[in-house]
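chain below, 182 aa
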Amino acid sequence: MKMLIADEAPTDGKIVIGGWDITTIRNYDVPYLRRQIGVVFQDYKLLQKKSVYENVSFALESCGTQKSRIYKIVPQILKIVGLQSKADRYPYQLSGGEQQRTAIARSLVHQPKLLIADEPTGNLDSINSREIIDLLLRINNLNTTVILVSHDRDIINSLGKRVVTMDDGKIISDQVRGRYIL
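prediction:
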């Protein structure tokens, strides 16, 4: 996962995403690459002193996006993830599922071509896990490629999607409509 966002370099081979050669990318181009890739972490990585709205808008503000565009985009994104009524809440006022949806909203503000979700259900109960997976499927249906990194056998088996299994940094299986095999 770290290689996909140019946080680590591969020891061998080549990684190309959306025309970007990650193996030769220059440091000053990395922020532009990362705007095309949304990342959702298991531990949410929310700014605790910012509201849901501010957490989502921060991803745009930090890139110099005009306020008029932020005012237009953020409510749309919050609607997609079902948090429009919680825009003024802070992370400590949210359930785990709502915090994860906030993190997903933040990852969508740049309309990424690729969304990487690293164990997005790891800290959630089964009901919230299913809601997050359903949201990721809706995002995928909106023409965003979603890479779901998970050790949850039940979730992987229920999706009926492509499953790539890695062990010790090597691909050991690539199934078009796969199942969890480890």
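Strands lie at 16-17, 20-21, 37-40, 114-118, 145-149, 163-167, 170-175. Helices lie at 30-34, 52-61, 67-80, 96-108, 126-141, 153-159.
thats it, cya
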